[in-house]
Amino acid sequence: MTPDLTVVVPMYNEEEVITLFVERLRPTLDGLEAAYEVLVVDDGSADQTPVLLQRFRRTWPELRVIRLRANSGHQAAISAGLANARGGWVATIDADLQDPPEVIAEMVRAGQDQDVDVVYGVRGDRSTDSAFKRTTARAFYRLMRLVGGDSIRMDAGDFRLMSRATVDAVNALPEQHRVLRLIIPTLGFPSTEVTYRRDARAAGSSKYPLSKMLRLSLDSLTGLSLAPLRLATWFGLGGFLLAAVLLAYAVIGKVLGNPISGWTSTVVIVAGFAAFQLLCLGILGEYVGRIYSTQQARPTYYVTYDSLMAQDRAAAGS
Ligand code: UDP
Ligand code: MG
């Protein structure tokens, strides 16, 4: 049986919030009058998350669980979910109730009524996020639009609904370390958006430390555009012109008999350029690393052996 809708939920150490989440998600989906499945991707949780999931499975036949062998990150977890989703429509939602499950119903309606392939959840109000999160998020989306163009939506995260065609297109991408919210708009499927209020995390704490945020930003930037590489070229050109002007200035000074004194300017220029060259090497390294890992084609996640197959076999047998 193919469900009409799959809801993909990445979870990493969400024992505190999982019961609250299920209590709100299940009635919403039961009320849809559509065949659905919920596919939770347990991203290598080290707390009670897997135990609680197995407990919920006993009373909720529509729940399927994939467990990843190691913590592989939010984006990899969603990718694992998309690769195993069976629904004609696929929604992705965070487990912490920052994305209200009730909005999924609205998204399904919007997708069907407006005959589009993608429905983005757009955060109309994120006053419940910390000032730090809001500021960094705004800077992030500004930068992405600057390098990636206007198809990138401000404040559209990973709460969205996609048609089967869209999910198949995403699954077919060879790219490693994908940042889905930036890739999906570039696929060119007709889309619409649903605005929602981003609530505070219902329980537990954020699983996105600064290190993961930085990793996501770097992946986004290098995955989106070659602009940073070009930036290096333009700066190189600018530096060359500046050097030419300085050289002319020094030579003229020498000819006119008053050579420029002082080494401070020299030191500043040399140090500045050395730092800048290192930065350019770093940028190059990011892209070379990306080429390398794509070439290795090593999966960004490993599903714990047969966890999903065993469930599906049991479900088919019962
Ligand atoms: N998550 C995950 N793997 C990770 C980090 C987070 O699957 O390595 C999940 C997490 O359980 C949640 C979603 O991704 O369902 C978003 O994480 P979180 O709410 O902690 O991020 P924030 O809202 O603070 O950016
Ligand atoms: Mg959250």
Automatic annotation (TrEMBL):
It is found in: Membrane. Residues 6-166 form the Glycosyltransferase 2-like domain. The keyword Mitochondrion does not apply. It holds the Pfam family Glycos_transf_2. One of its GO terms (cellular component) is plasma membrane. The keyword Transferase applies. Its main location: membrane. GO terms for molecular function: glycosyltransferase activity. It comes from the Bacteria. The chain crosses the membrane at residues 231-252, 264-288. Keywords: Glycosyltransferase, Membrane, Transferase, Transmembrane, Transmembrane helix. It is a multi-pass membrane protein. Belongs to the glycosyltransferase 2 family. This is Glucosyl transferase. It comes from Luteipulveratus mongoliensis.
